Amino acid sequence: MTIRERTQQIEQRMLSPYAALSEATRGRLRPEEECPIRTPYQRDRDRIIHCNAYRRLMHKTQVFLSPRGDHYRTRLTHTQEVSQIARTIARALLLNEDLTEAIALGHDLGHTPFGHAGEAVLNEVYSGGFSHNDQSVRVVQRLEKGGQGLNLTYEVLDGILHHSYTPQGGHACTLEGRVVHYADKIAYMNHDIDDAIRAGILAESDLPRTVTDVVGGSKSRRITSFVLSIVENSGEDIRMDPDCQAAYQGLRSFLFESVYTNPKAKGEEEKAKEVIRRLYAYFTAKPHKLPEDYQTIVKQEGADRAACDYISGMSDRYCVTVFESLFVPRSWGM
After folding, report:
1. Cα 149 from Cα 128, distance rounded (Å)
2. Which listed site, 44, 141, 294, 323, has its alpha carbon 20 to 30 Å from 29?
3. Alpha-carbon gap, residue 70 to 58, rounded angstroms
4. 264 within a domain of the structure (yes/no)
């Protein structure tokens, strides 16, 4: 018996009947020989951690563009916090923690530079429409490994696609994917409050009593309350009790009004949007200027698709560097 087979036997004995067993995966687009040590979901997790798009998350905006401070969240630290919360829930519910972790680590790989501002611009200028959910799947299926993709399992791809609401609607096909959906929101709401307090945009006392009376006033108490509610109320599906669900929705609404549209937090976004608009116009007009890796996409899917892929994959600082190299005059010298 291999180590992988032993692990899969443990899954059969220990996990909930609602869990997604790794031996029952719907598989990969391209069949592969099984690893003697790792289950399919463990392999997916490792492939995501080692891919280029995952490393670029460390220099992508979460809420605040290029914050001056070491403790503000980036897209990478957000991803790690989502993974931690999701794994805690999955373990408590006896779900497949490896699948949960793989989905959580991959859920934001398609996010643009400058956060949701960049996503909104690409959705505006690209005729095919743009959402980071779809792009995250495209990254792991089409763009990574020189165009080969990571060849992830169906369940991980489905969880990545459905981690947030999509135009197509629907939920992840596994409970593990639905856990990540909740963990994503729990993580970003609470760490965005933390960052907004650090930035002087909010005080903890500003949080609505309709939320704090139910789930608590501190970050740790809020996270614990949401997680406990999910663990105590989930079974065939993932859910909270009505009071916690109302507090969860109320907190999201409060943040959209007080932080996500706050001029102090978003004052530079129009500049960031214009950077992306101009880069997109430039590369769609001059696709031969795109890096060599994207020339195959130009030929197969068009310049607009290639430009969208290139720009969405940029980190914030690389996006600014490319913009400056194309549109900002350099000092003359011999």
Report:
1. 21
2. 294
3. 12
4. no
Number of structural domains found in the chain: 2
- Which DSSP string corresponds to 187-239? HHHHHHHHHHHHTTS--GGGS-HHHHHHH-SSHHHHHHHHHHHHHHH-SSS--
- Is the distance from CB of 7 to CB of 83 less than 8 angstroms? no
- Asked whether residue 20 falls in the same domain as residue 161, the answer is yes
**CA 248, chain centre distance (Å):** 19
Q: How many CB atoms lie within 10 A of CB 17?
A: 7
At 228-262, the pLDDT tens digits run 999 999 999 999 999 999 999 999 999 999 988 88
Range of the domain at 52: 3-200
CATH of the domain at 133: 1.10.3210.10
Q: Would the pLDDT of 16 be above 70? A: yes
Domain boundary among the residues 200, 222, 251 is at 200
Neighbours of 99 (CB within 10 A): 31
C-alpha closest to that of 152 among 183, 106, 184? 106
Judge if 21 and 152 occupy the same domain.
Answer: yes
Give residue 196's identity as a one-letter amino acid code.
Answer: A
**162 contacts 39 by C-beta, under 8 angstroms:** no
For residue 313, give the amino acid letter.
G
CA-wise closest residue to 225 among 235, 208, 211, 238:
211
Are 194 and 72 members of one domain? yes
**Ramachandran angles phi, psi of 52, nearest 5°:** -60, -40
Q: Is residue 133 part of a domain?
A: yes
pLDDT in tens, 272-313: 999 999 999 999 999 999 999 999 999 999 999 999 999 999
- What is the mean pLDDT of the segment spanning 139-149? 96
Q: What single DSSP character describes residue 79?
A: H
pLDDT digits (tens, 9 = 90+) for 157-213: 999 999 986 655 689 999 999 999 999 999 999 999 998 998 888 998 999 999 999
